[in-house]
Write a structure and sequence with these properties.
With about 80 residues, the protein is mostly helical. Helices cover about 50% and strands about 0% of the residues.
Length: about 80
């Protein structure tokens, strides 16, 4: 499989979908629909967020980076499990 996202082929994408665990298929379907359906929420033509970054945002980003550097983050799969997904 290609590692360069710009060189992705349909075969690469099919292989990724085929490798997905069954419990992720619904999420993958939603993500692909968002990329292919202009009426779907989150379609790529939606303009970028133009809200200014606040001091509060910058503080949250800094705290997140510091927690990452201290290895204090919770792995994604644990968060998803806790959320029942």
């Amino acid at each position: 499989m290609s590692t360069d996202a710009t060189a992705a082929t349909r075969a690469d994408l099919h292989a990724l979908v085929d490798a997905l665990p069954a419990d992720f298929l619904a999420d993958a379907k939603i993500a692909l629909e968002r990329l292919t359906d202009p009426s779907a929420p989150g379609y790529p033509d939606v303009p970028e967020d133009d809200e200014p970054v606040t001091e509060e945002d910058l503080g949250a980003i800094r705290r997140g980076r510091e927690a990452y550097l201290r290895s204090e983050l919770i792995p994604h799969n644990e968060v998803m499990r806790d959320l029942g997904r």
